[in-house]
Specification:
Elements lengths: L4 H10 L4 E4 L6 E4 L2 E4 L7 H12 L3 H7 L1 E8 L2 E10 L2 E8 L25 E6 L6 H15 L3 E6 L12 E6 L7 H8 L6 E4 L5 H12 L3 E6 L4 H10 L3 H14 E11 L6 E9 L2 H9 L5 H6 L9 H10 L5 H7 L3 H7 L2
Parallel strand pairs: 7-11, 7-12, 8-9, 8-10, 10-11
Antiparallel strand pairs: 1-2, 1-6, 2-3, 4-5, 5-6, 12-13
Helix pairs in contact: 5-6, 7-8, 8-9, 11-12, 11-13, 12-13
């Protein structure tokens, strides 16, 4: 059996798959509308999987052999793809995420209208959060694309790996990849502050030093966008604060209360029709009440504060789920499974 990456991505694109999994001694598997299914055909031999791994990483194969995993991104069969190649007991496996072709427009994503206002922010921190595969990269790409088209700014992205590729329009866009252009997120962020940026995109805020640098950048007059793997706005605040030792947490809460502008928490849920997925989205726009709750460490009260600030565009996750369920876009069961307060939502769904 012969197969290359072009064949695999072409097959996935025809099947409208979001992800492809290559594993030794198993059939090719596709994730379509959130569910994993076999593409059929013969199991992939370890030799073929190794050949595909070599094709994926190129000169990075010796690093893959020694470290055990390798992240990269490339355009295959006309589709921008993110690849993670990793060693497993039977040889080499590959996970391929197919990204949208071109930079999507904000209006196409089904986000709450207030997200469009983020494009005009001049400084502060904006977080886009959610589990893997919830559309964080796509939301950020749409926001960056809009800034690129409408503002004469310097945008610097720091990613691992570079996913969406931007061409400078009204803005100047420079993209840097961790491991290729800079040693780490923290090292890249420290350098970015000397590169005259207006807008900074941090692919992942995963450690103390990166979070600290991002807060400093937001505090010193830059507009910073970052991602976290959290389920809600309140969880995001706790995650950022808990990374720091207890003696520093009060100071970090103070910094966050002054710099955080908004949090978007996303879930992609299967449609009731069985085809496609719908975006459920919580948005917290930070006002004086929420600033006080962050500063005082009263994050359990933030959900209530979001629900009472709808006039400035905030939306709770449960309100978003209720809208989707009542519109029959998703089933009642899917909505309740994704809810923060199942009892409340059960009463609200018609």
């Amino acid at each position: 059996m012969t197969m290359n990456l072009e064949d695999i991505v072409g097959l996935a694109r025809e099947a409208a798959a979001s992800d492809v999994h290559v594993s030794p001694n198993d059939t090719l598997r596709l994730r379509v509308h959130g569910a994993l299914r076999s593409a059929g055909g013969e199991p992939l031999s370890p030799a073929l999987c190794e050949q595909l791994a070599r094709e994926s990483v190129g000169d990075g194969f010796s690093r893959l052999e020694s470290v055990g995993e390798y992240d990269t991104a490339k355009t295959i069969c006309g589709v921008r793809c993110r690849l993670n190649v990793y060693r497993v007991s039977g040889g080499y496996a590959i996970s391929i995420r197919l990204l949208a072709t071109g930079i999507p427009k904000l209006s196409e994503l089904g986000l709450p209208p207030v997200v469009g206002e983020f494009v005009s922010y001049q400084k502060g921190l904006v977080l886009v959060t959610g589990e893997t595969g919830s559309g964080k990269s796509t939301t950020l790409a749409a926001i960056m694309g809009e800034i690129n088209r409408t503002r004469p700014d310097h945008i610097i992205t720091l990613e691992d790996p570079i996913e969406y590729v931007y061409e400078s329009e009204l803005a100047l866009v420079n993209q840097r990849e961790v491991g290729r252009h800079t040693e780490s997120f923290a090292a890249g962020l420290r350098a970015i502050l000397r590169e005259d940026p207006d807008v900074i995109l941090v692919g992942e805020m995963r450690d103390l030093e990166t979070i600290e640098c991002a807060l400093t950048a937001a505090e010193t007059g830059h507009l910073v966008f970052g991602t976290l793997h959290t389920q809600s706005a309140a969880d995001s605040i706790d995650r950022l604060v808990d990374v720091f030792p207890e003696a520093r947490q009060a100071q970090i809460r103070m910094q966050l209360s002054m710099t955080l502008r908004a949090v978007v928490a996303q879930q992609l849920l299967p449609n009731a029709s069985g085809e496609g997925r719908s975006l459920a989205c919580e948005v917290m726009v930070v006002n004086s009440a929420i600033r006080n709750l962050i500063r005082e460490g009263k994050t359990p009260q933030i959900a209530n504060a979001i629900s009472t600030s709808a006039q400035i565009g905030s939306v709770t996750m449960d309100a978003s789920l209720m809208r989707l369920a009542n519109a029959r876009a998703i089933t009642r069961e899917v909505a309740l499974e994704a809810a923060h307060d199942r009892d409340y939502l059960a009463r609200q769904i018609r």
